[in-house]
Amino acid sequence: MAPRAPWPALALALLVGAPAGAQVLSPGPLATPHADIDSDDDCMKCHTRGEGVPDRLCRDCHTLIDQRIAQRRGYHGRAIGGRTCADCHKDHRGRGAALIRWPGGRPERFSHVLTGYRLDGAHAEVGCRDCHTRARITEPEAREIDGTWLGLPDTCGECHHSDDPHDGEFAGRACTECHGQVRWSELDRFDHDRARFPLVGQHAEVACGDCHTQPRYTGTATECVDCHQSPHPAEARFGADCASCHTARGWQRVIYPRADHRFFPLEGGHALDDCGACHGEKGNAAPSPACGRCHEDVHDDRFGARCQSCHDIVDWRNVRRDAFDHSRTAFPLKGLHVAVTCDDCHPRGKLKPIAHDRCLDCHADPHEGEVGADCEGCHVEQGFRPATWPIAKHTTFALGGAHRATACDDCHRIEDAWRFRKGVVECHECHEDRHGGQFGERACTTCHVDTHWRPASAFDHAAVWALEGQHAEAACGHCHAGGRYAETPRACDDCHGGPHLGQFAATSPRLDCADCHTPAGWSGTYDHTRAWPLDGAHADAECDACHKEVAVADGRMTVRWRLGFTDCARCHSSPHRGSDAGGDR
């Protein structure tokens, strides 16, 4: 048996022996739409190592499909699920092979609802290519693709614009608001009740062309007189509002509502069922609304012709409170008096003069004579409360600051009775002493103002103990704990203690806190020349280089400020030890 040729050599022989332009590695010719990339050099336009045929390479070429997938519209953007392009579009099956696999092998078997546009009515009976033609494509990019199914519009007007019988009357509105997809002539979706003129009664039986004669549908007249001639003469003064008496159910059926009777309310004895009793047999008379035209004036014109000012239409003997003008009497009704019933002042219909010069003629005095009889000085007819006593007249105790906002009840309501005390001038007469008598007879106004209790803005701390430096920033409670202000300690160690454990008191010279410290800060004010001048390198040394923290006998820690020595050897070791005048040898 002849020796087997090595694989690289065999592959080379195949490549060398292959005719120019032929595919050696392809499993078969590409379909006609991809014929322009059917060579071994073009494989990587669709294939990648390790991924096979990834969708991203397909979408790089098929940009219209890529846009629809990104926008989630159309068949590819809605219905493909997790499938890849290669799952549906198989290639390498020869030039005549189809890249689109239709259900049952026919596009008519495809479920159009998957595209997002359901084919209903007459659309369901149209052949696929009757709609999918180059002439109907609205996307310029799709129009350049032969045989494409993309780019059709989804609105009626874009396909049927040449069939519009309305000549643009409804431009901008969808045809489906009125028309279905079965027959154009049937308005199976139009609801006339949603129009400006709902069809009710006999109007529902009128043919469309009787009103829309042009044909024109927008701007159609809707007033009764636009179509019907009024049978009423002008002298009847019924106006053009036919609907106030008639309905679309029939011209002869008068349903004029009593509440809308323009000239005279049909109430009480006037609630007649027979319109002809006032308007005549033919309903064209316009009677006068004056009472005297029908009724005899029993007052012989003493009160004028407006009988309704006092009487109602139910019973002549009833006087109408809401119609009677009490301002024409000696006592006009104002404020709460308006709501008072007539019987409260006129018992049993008493109309003779009633005492009304003073409030106390009718009202009991709640103040029991304490403030006199001039009620109007504090109260008005709009209500007993609040009182209208002006603050400017509150001279016994001037109302300033927070006192101006205090309710009258807080001071003048005592044991559920109104009392108007006089002579209250001191704070403690109304307010509890929150200081527990610390300040004796001193007036509250020494520290406080009537605008607010806190802070004590009237108090001058400098007159007692000046607040300087950080003391000026300290909260009051830091020094006056528990609300204690009198006899507050003022020595430094009373508040700050003795952090130096008596160093400056037990040895001379004795120093006070103020000799080293100021209210501005704890450190930085001591004059070191008083103890030992800091010269040379000593001037740059840190304090803790010489003054160490040490423990005293009881274990407490403190910084040792008084060293008790000034010789160099106590801090520095001698560099000259172990050498003579001649130096080291």
* Overall SS class: little secondary structure
Strand tally: 6
The shape is flat
Report the sheet with the most strands, covering strand number, pairing sense and barrel closure. 2 strands, antiparallel
Strand content: under 5%
Note down, in words, how this protein is organized.
- There is one protein chain.
- The chain is low in regular secondary structure.
- 15% of the residues lie in helices and 3% in strands.
- It contains 17 helices and six strands.
- The strands form three sheets. Strands 1-2 form a two-stranded antiparallel sheet. The protein has a two-stranded antiparallel ribbon with strand order 3-4.
- The two termini are 103 Å apart.
SSE inventory with pairings:
Blueprint: H1 7-17, H2 55-61, H3 63-71, H4 74-78, H5 85-88, H6 128-131, H7 140-143, H8 156-160, H9 208-211, H10 224-227, E1 246-247, E2 250-254, H11 276-279, H12 342-345, H13 408-412, E3 413-414, E4 417-418, H14 476-479, H15 492-496, H16 503-506, H17 543-546, E5 549-551, E6 557-559
Could you list some keywords that capture this structure?
single chain, about 575 residues, little secondary structure, two-stranded antiparallel ribbon, two-stranded antiparallel sheet, 17 helices
